[in-house]
Amino acid sequence: MTLQQLEYFLAALEEGSFTAAAERLLLAQPSLSEQVRRLEAELGVALFARVGRGIKPTAAAEALRPHAEAALSAVEHAREAVVAQRELQGGIATFGTFGTARWYPGTQIVMAFRRRHPKVRVRLVGQNSSEVAAAVRAGDLEAGLIALPIDDTGLEVRPIMQDEIVYLSADAARLRHPVTIEDLAAAPLILTDASYGLEDPTRRQLYELAQREGVKIEPAIDVEDVETAIELASRGMGDALVARGVLLSLGRRVPRRLGWVPFAEPLHDTFAFINRRGARLSPAAREFMALAEEGMQAMARELGTTPPRQHPPGG
Q1: In the chain, where does the domain assigned CATH 3.40.190.290 lie?
Q2: Which end of the chain is more exposed for a tag (fewer CB within 10 A), N or C?
Q3: How many CB atoms lie within 10 A of CB 92?
Q4: What start and end residues bound the annotated signal peptide (predicted)?
């Protein structure tokens, strides 16, 4: 049984003759009749009784009718859904992001996307870049914006922005000069993304740097989110590592008790788009990525014009 056979069957049923049905569908009448005969043969029943030059539906035809209509309606709805998605008139845009994306232009990106495409739902998922990379690799997400490094097996990676990571402390004595990895090894550190450990890109950078220099990094406090790390640092419980973009977005919400300095060997969050290698991205994903790139690069320009590189407590 094919959709074509069901379409021909319904046309014959509605028109009352094979000839009229064929004319409606712009077909040769023998072609339509042959497909209906094949459908009858497959079902093992007659669907029409031939009456003079017309046809009369049998009880079997009346029983088949609602199912045939439902099948063709489902196909049409599927086609409409795909067209709507292609033209960004419906569907859902699902995108993966790194954990601190809310402190970057994430909100503005969603707002811009929804203003342009109000009929498309938006779903942002992801707490950590490694989690997003795994979801994209598995096909659960179409694309994502993540922080490097990650396991890029099976992925296409396109870096778009770097943001400097700085050392945040309420102790002015520890902010007299750019921080070395040896300073870090001796400091009471507060690190974020506790659930992900070495899967977290920032931690991976730190631990790789420490390994090269022959020192060991052991945090005094592990937390999940950057806001908690900043609050604890402001209360003198330890020192945190925070990207300048986050500090820029927080603005006056960063406690004045805190100051920051850069690393002697600069440390950066590198943000990149990822998708499965060779995958064809949907219009929604491409549009979201274009808006995200525009927003991230605008922030990069702002960070490039917001000195100083050294910021004392209370300054």
Answers
A1: 93-303
A2: C
A3: 10
A4: none
**229-234-238 Cα angle (round to 5):** 60
- Of the candidates 260, 273, 257, 126, the residue with the CA atom closest to the CA atom of residue 196: 126
Pairing of strands 121-125, 143-148: unpaired
Mean pLDDT value of segment 201-214? 90
Q: What is the pLDDT of residue 13?
A: 93
The DSSP secondary-structure symbol of 311 reads B
Alpha-carbon distance of 85 to 284, in angstroms, equals 7
Residues 148 and 203 sit within 8 Å (Cβ to Cβ): no
The residue among 216, 218, 315 whose CA lies nearest residue 259 is 315
Which pairing describes strands 268-276 and 143-148: parallel, antiparallel, or unpaired?
Answer: antiparallel
- 314 φψ region: left (φ > 0), alpha (ψ -120 to 50), beta (else): left
Helical (H) or strand (E) element with 56: strand 54-57
Q: Which amino acid is at 213?
A: E
Q: Which residues have a Cβ under 8 Å from the Cβ of 172 and sit 6 or more positions away?
A: 259, 312, 313
Cβ proximity of 284 and 88 under 8 Å: yes
249-259 average pLDDT score: 90
Closest by CA position to 1, among listed 29, 63, 43? 43
Which of 3.40.190.290, 3.20.20.100, 3.40.220.10, 3.40.50.720 would CATH assign to domain 93-303? Answer: 3.40.190.290
Residues 43-87 pLDDT 10s = 999 999 988 778 999 999 999 999 999 999 888 878 766 765 565
CA nearest 98: which of 269, 311, 217?
269
